Amino acid sequence: MFAVLKTGGKQYKVQAGDILRVEKLAADAGETIQFDEVLMLGGDAPVVGAPLVDGAAVKAEVIDQIKGEKLIHFVKRRRKHSSKRTKGHRQKLTLIKITEILASGATKAAPKAAAKAAPAAKAAAGDDLTQLTGVGPAAAKKLNEAGLTSFAQIAALSEDDIAGIDAVKVKPEWVAQAKDLAKG
């Protein structure tokens, strides 16, 4: 069985046991990484993704962080008073060994689904406080940490309650807007 995976803007046809040099990845030697961008699975029953194959992944072990061969870029302009310039570099690469090709059951897909479900759970727990004028994501987070998660709670605040909140300075116009938003 083989797979075509995409990493670093390039596509690679891989099988279990292959050793590849790919663009530098943020992983140390000995770590196991997973590539979720699988474009095709081949074998007895080939599967072509549109553009990716759902649930497919390729697991690999990082062998080492290396540098590629030296590339020299030489520029010479012809004629009198011309110029020459030599530049070069060595590309940073990651050496990996393909350990396994997963046709389904990739572990990375589950956290993405959980991450999408988390905002829905937050919305069910309270209101979107960023609808108040002057409340951004940071202020909404501080209000939630102070125990204020709904418009009704903010609308019920008295001036003494507002003075007692240290996490964020609650403005009186927020209370008026929260009363309107709490009604519907």
Could you name the key traits of this structure?
about 180 residues, alpha+beta, DNA polymerase, domain 1, 2 domains, 4-stranded antiparallel beta sheet, 8 strands
Report on the structure:
- The chain has 184 residues and is α+β, with helices and mostly antiparallel strands.
- It folds into two domains: 2-74 and 86-104, no CATH class; 126-183, DNA polymerase, domain 1.
- It is 27% helix and 36% strand.
- It is built from five helices and eight strands; from the N terminus they run ββββββββααααα.
- The protein has helices at 109-125, 137-145, 151-155, 159-164, 172-183, and strands spanning 2-7, 10-15, 19-23, 32-35, 38-42, 47-48, 57-76, 84-102.
- Strands 2-1-5-6 form a four-stranded antiparallel β-sheet, with no helix packed on it. A four-stranded antiparallel β-sheet has the order 3-8-7-4, with no helix packed on it.
- The protein is elongated.
- The N and C termini lie far apart (57 Å).
- Mean pLDDT is 83; it is low at 109-124.
